[in-house]
Amino acid sequence: MAEQNAGDQVVFNKPKVELHVHLDGAIRLETIMEVAKRRGMQLPETVEGLRTLCTMSRPGNLTEFLTKFKEYMPVIAGDREAIKRIAFEFVETKAREGVLYVEVRYSPHLLANSKVDPIPWDQKGGDVTPDDVVQLVAQGLSEGEKAFNIKARSILCCMRHKPEWSMEVLELCKKYQNRGVVAIDLAGDESLNCVSQPESCSENYEAQPGHRQAFEEAVRSGVHRTVHAGEVGPPAVVKEAVDVLKAERIGHGYHTIEDPGLYSHLLEKNMHFEVCPISSKYTGACDQDFTKHPLIRFKMDKANYSLNTDDPLIFNSTLNTDYSIVQTHMKFTEEDFKRLNINAANSSFLPEKEKRDLVNQLHKAYGADG
């Protein structure tokens, strides 16, 4: 597809920071095939056949996007070797894309297969717990850091349809704070948390108690917080993320601009928006015409945002694809790219000293005008 082919051209060949990418949406097709063969699981026999199964060939909606995970996640979930491998390979991929620092997120429960929390595609249960998953991912990321000389940290996701998991996710964040876990996230279908019909969400949106409890404890425990909000949901979801869940960053946040008061307030707060251009088109979050993307408004208003891939496996894209798209359709310049990466570094969930070091590395790489 045109925008994906454009991604082959590197338009910003300088160090980058990525803050919003899902580990389970960034797996190599070849790895999925090799693990499936080892585990005796049936998949298409060619990489291209698997690509057709796992990727979105045209813009759709969030529901269609989420179903793609079911095509390949049974291969990886519950397999210790595979979980560690995808984390290691993820770091290698990001190093190749020129990423200096990355925060990768995932749901520990959806990569597990324990009998305590059986996932939909594994009704038999197994011995890999969410805690095991966090340990395995941490090992893979750490080995990748050493091998490829970049820094990688992780964010653990609560899932909107599973509020009963959220306190365990929070406890895992606390347990592994010194082993690379830097934040908690809330992901999934935004409409699931409306207390009435989705069309009434703007007036009646409220987080389910399990999520709210976990995020309140995160605040008390000093665990950083980001929330998927305003991707396909209305501005009220963003407002709830900020006011109730105390989000320090917003995942996507495109529909925030539909509420001028809220948008103005978040600009004043210097709220960071984790923007994913290619993703927003294929999930139906934004107009398919990139020249009408909310990012253009963010850019014009000098908002605080980053560029991210979200789920590059499913969109058949790379970070370069997203950079190329915004250069071609939104007139981004090299100075714009420098600014957004420095903003991303400043909005990262690293400890303050490491954050200052990262920002300084970028300034040095970008030169005096960076």
UniProtKB/TrEMBL annotation:
InterPro entries listed in its UniProt record: A/AMP_deam_AS (IPR006650), A_deaminase_dom (IPR001365), Ado/ade_deaminase (IPR006330), Metal_Hydrolase (IPR032466)
Keyword terms, alphabetized: Cell junction, Cell membrane, Cytoplasm, Cytoplasmic vesicle, Hydrolase, Lysosome, Membrane, Metal-binding, Nucleotide metabolism, Zinc
Pfam family, one: A_deaminase
Catalytic activity: 2'-deoxyadenosine + H2O + H(+) = 2'-deoxyinosine + NH4(+); adenosine + H2O + H(+) = inosine + NH4(+)
Listed EC numbers: 3.5.4.4
GO cellular component entries: anchoring junction; cytoplasmic vesicle lumen; cytosol; external side of plasma membrane; lysosome
Cofactor: Zn(2+)
Enzyme class: hydrolase
Topology within the bilayer: Peripheral membrane protein
Compartments reported by the entry: Cell junction; Cell membrane; Cytoplasmic vesicle lumen; Lysosome
CDD domains to which the protein is assigned, alphabetical: ADA (cd01320)
Residue stretches making up the Adenosine deaminase domain: 15-364
Entry annotated with the keyword NAD: no
GO MF annotation list: adenosine deaminase activity; metal ion binding
GO BP of this protein: adenosine catabolic process; hypoxanthine salvage; inosine biosynthetic process; negative regulation of adenosine receptor signaling pathway; nucleotide metabolic process; purine ribonucleoside monophosphate biosynthetic process; T cell activation
Protein family according to the UniProt entry: Belongs to the metallo-dependent hydrolases superfamily. Adenosine and AMP deaminases family.
PANTHER family to which the protein is assigned, alphabetical: ADENOSINE DEAMINASE
Protein's name according to its UniProt entry: Adenosine deaminase
